[in-house]
Specification:
CATH topology of the largest domain: Aminopeptidase
CATH superfamily of the largest domain: Gcn5-related N-acetyltransferase (GNAT)
Radius of gyration: 21 Å
Helix content: 25-40%
CATH architecture of the largest domain: 3-Layer(aba) Sandwich
Oligomer: single chain
Strand content: 25-35%
Number of domains: 2
Length: 332
């Protein structure tokens, strides 16, 4: 495989006793203890059931089609990173180490070694002009020096959570011109249009370039709705706002189930000319009411820290900041 050869050609230096090897040398039984450790971490830090994502990653590892690296010491895998190619873009899918491999302080961490290898590989891959990485398991700043030194821009983001057992501060605001209903498959194309319009010139379109075009927004939606990478899509807890006159979709909230009793807002946005009318706030209220009626205990979301208006809204609605993490973007 050409990609295999390319990875091997850019392994770079590593500390004595620790090898950074092509992920496709390994099977799921080599990685399962590490993924089990990561699954416990997601549960502990984010109340997120990572088992379906871990199982999907292990299936891809067994199929030998997942490009990436494993950190190995004495036949023990203590860390891994994988990435995917999307046209001219490389996306770092995950980077994780369980701290079972300790390096001398002068050599940094296993995560840093893995980050260096994946950055070099992607930057030297023919045709790649953009790299995106969102490292939710890592506290903001943990790997920033490594990425920034290689020309990446850093965008701090927040992981926020709302307890649904407490008295909710969310409210649906009636409107003479807007009605709300549950999301359905017929909303794919209209929702993509709302996302594209809502993020035009927005900081989040710098982090995720899919938001910049209708086709990219459709790919984003397909990933959210069809695949379990960000939880299991929950159509009953997802809503759209519709203009009563034109019947056009003007706002949307998409929710996934990340644990049996925990929801996660994967997208909430409103077209620019209707902002300030509490449409987004009403969509969140509908979602929280639905989840609470089904005995869910929490609802989470992520937001870019620089999006101060959205952060302020979520804080006012009762969301708490649980984690601060980084998104990184490189353009060559």
């Amino acid at each position: 495989m050409a990609l295999h050869t390319h990875i091997e050609a850019h392994r770079g230096p590593q500390p004595s006793g620790v090898e950074i090897l092509d992920l496709r040398h390994f099977n799921s039984h080599h990685l399962r203890p590490l993924l089990d450790h990561e699954t416990r971490m997601w549960q502990q830090l984010m109340t997120w059931d990572y088992r379906s994502s871990a199982d999907m990653i292990l299936r891809y590892i067994d199929s030998k089609i997942l490009p990436g690296y494993a950190a190995v010491e004495d036949d023990h895998v203590g860390g891994y990173v994988f990435f995917v190619y999307e046209g001219g873009k490389g996306v770092v899918g995950d980077l994780y180490a369980d701290q079972s491999i300790r390096l001398p302080e002068s050599q940094g961490t296993v995560e840093r070694l893995l980050a260096i290898h994946v950055i070099e590989t992607l930057q030297q891959s023919p045709g790649i002009h953009r790299i995106e990485a969102q490292l939710l398991p890592h506290e903001s700043g943990t790997l920033s020096e490594t990425f920034v030194q290689q020309g990446f821009r850093q965008y701090p983001r927040l992981f926020m959570s709302l307890p649904l057992a407490a008295e909710l501060k969310t409210e649906v605001f009636p409107s003479s011109s807007i009605e709300f209903r549950r999301w359905s498959d017929q909303d794919f194309q209209p929702t993509a249009g709302v996302i594209t319009a809502a993020y035009r010139g927005h900081v989040d379109s710098e982090i995720n370039d899919q938001y910049r075009s209708l086709s990219g927004s459709l790919r984003f939606l397909n990933n959210i709705v069809r695949f379990p990478g960000c939880g299991i899509f929950d159509a009953n807890a997802s809503f759209v706002a519709v203009n009563k006159v034109t019947r056009s979709v003007v706002g949307v909230l998409l929710c996934s189930r990340v644990r049996e009793d925990v929801g996660h807002i994967t997208q909430v946005c409103v077209v620019p000319d209707l902002r300030g009318r509490r449409i987004g706030e009403s969509l969140i209220a509908l979602c929280t009411q639905e989840l609470r009626n089904r005995n869910f205990t929490a609802l989470s979301l992520t937001v870019t820290e620089a999006n101060t208006k959205a952060v302020g809204l979520y804080l006012r609605l009762g969301f708490d900041v649980k984690r601060r993490f980084d998104a990184f973007v490189w353009e060559g």
